[in-house]
């Protein structure tokens, strides 16, 4: 069997790359001798530390002012790569034209209308009303019957820390700067840490560079003896994944670490506000969404109905007591 060169294109945040990973892994199982290249954004390149299925990457920062220049540069890279197959997760109508311009013989993407049906080898029906992993998996259906239900991470799992609750409270600054608030305030996170410690839990606190302000607030409001501050001890995504694997319980916001925990099958509790938990987590026993009792008729609103969150944020009025009780009532 000849060694196929396969290009995947998936622009988005790190969480998107983790959710897209099973699609790559399904295709790799179909073509085990293939060479896999992933085109992605700079901010998401950490995905390569979590898997050995990606052989090379093309970086294209398409969210800036030089979007079209970046896409042109990407085309030049693709032309020189001489790929056999290209698979794109984009749902913009422009995507089918871009894929056609790659001159790759077999092109797969979502059905965005007559143009995609004409220019793609197979235009796959886009079903957004399902878990994102399954939505991306549909792209592989035109090539293979193999389905990978959850991301497979190539990390060394650590021994579980008894009675531990690892908390990753933050979300990316990019989402905040773009007007998308997806977690409770730092002061409420501090109350969560305090209450869990008072209930006898070994609380561990972790975060990345984007989470510094939140972590600083927690450390100011909660006595140091009540938790172990691991902020700054994880140098990369792989370190974070290994730490998550060691926790008995993981508590987080709707962010990339959530999808790592899902892949590792760690008992996870996640704060959801404006986003749709049914699209972002699988319906399995190890994952529990924590949501406000909110009467907002638009909830969940983000992305489908709004591009930013509202000012009232009733969907994130979740108390520390509700969070702690949900955790304690759902762990053995």
Quick gist of this model?
The chain is α/β, with parallel strands linked by helices.
Your description of this structure?
With about 325 residues, this protein is an alpha/beta fold. It has 2 domains: about 5-140, Rossmann fold (3-Layer(aba) Sandwich), CATH 3.40.50; about 160-330, Glycogen Phosphorylase B (Rossmann fold). It has 12 helices and 12 strands. It has helices at about 15-30, 65-80, 95-100, 115-120, 130-140, 175, 185-200, 210-220, 235-245, 255-265, 275-280, 320-330, and strands at about 5-10, 35-40, 55-60, 85-90, 105-110, 120-125, 160-170, 200-205, 230, 245-255, 270, 285-290. It has a 6-stranded parallel β-sheet, sandwiched between helices. Helix 3 links the parallel strand 4 (about 85-90) and strand 5 (about 105-110). The longest helix has 17 residues, at about 15-30. The N and C termini lie far apart (about 50 Å).
The total of helices stands at 12
Percent range of helical residues: 25-40%
> Topology as H/E string?
EHEEHEHEHEHEHHEHEHEHEHEH
Unreliable parts: none
CATH architecture of the largest domain: 3-Layer(aba) Sandwich
Mean pLDDT: 94
CATH superfamily of the largest domain: Glycogen Phosphorylase B
Through-space gap between termini: 50 Å
Please identify the top-level CATH class of the largest domain: Alpha Beta
Strand order of the largest sheet: 3-2-1-4-5-6
The proportion of residues in beta strands is 15-25%
Number of spatially distinct domains: 2
Give the tally of β-strands: 12
The largest sheet, given as strand count, sense and whether it forms a barrel, is: 6 strands, parallel
Task: Using the alpha-carbon principal axes, give the shape.
Answer: globular
Query: Rg, please?
Result: 21 Å
Estimated structural class: alpha/beta
């Amino acid at each position: 069997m000849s060694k196929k060169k396969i290009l995947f294109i998936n622009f988005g945040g790190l969480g998107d790359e983790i959710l897209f990973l099973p699609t790559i892994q399904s295709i790799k199982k179909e073509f085990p001798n293939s060479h896999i290249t992933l085109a992605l954004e700079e901010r998401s390149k950490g995905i390569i530390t979590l898997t050995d299925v990606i052989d090379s990457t093309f970086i294209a920062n398409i969210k800036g002012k030089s979007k079209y220049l970046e896409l042109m540069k990407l085309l030049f890279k693709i032309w020189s790569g001489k790929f056999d197959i290209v698979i794109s997760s984009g749902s913009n109508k422009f995507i089918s034209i871009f894929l056609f311009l790659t001159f790759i013989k077999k092109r797969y993407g979502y059905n965005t209308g007559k143009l995609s049906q004409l220019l793609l080898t197979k235009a796959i029906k886009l079903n957004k009303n399902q878990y994102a992993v399954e939505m991306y998996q549909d792209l592989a259906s035109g090539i293979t019957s193999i389905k990978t239900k959850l991301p497979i991470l190539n990390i060394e799992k650590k021994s579980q820390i008894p009675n531990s609750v690892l908390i990753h409270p933050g979300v990316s600054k990019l989402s905040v700067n773009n007007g998308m608030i997806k977690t409770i305030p730092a002061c409420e996170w501090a109350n969560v840490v305090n209450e869990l410690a008072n209930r006898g839990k070994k609380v561990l606190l972790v975060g990345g560079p984007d989470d510094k302000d939140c972590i600083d607030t927690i450390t100011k409001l909660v006595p140091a003896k009540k938790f172990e501050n691991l902020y700054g001890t994880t140098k990369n995504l792989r370190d974070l994944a290994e730490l998550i694997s060691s926790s008995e319980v993981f508590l987080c916001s709707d962010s990339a670490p959530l999808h790592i925990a899902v892949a590792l099958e760690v008992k996870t509790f996640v704060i959801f506000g404006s986003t749709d938990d049914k699209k972002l987590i699988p319906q399995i026993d190890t994952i529990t969404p924590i949501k406000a009792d909110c009467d907002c008729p638009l909830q969940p609103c983000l992305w489908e109905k709004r591009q930013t969150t509202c000012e009232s944020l009733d969907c994130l009025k979740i108390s520390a007591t509700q969070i702690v009780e949900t955790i304690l009532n759902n762990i053995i």
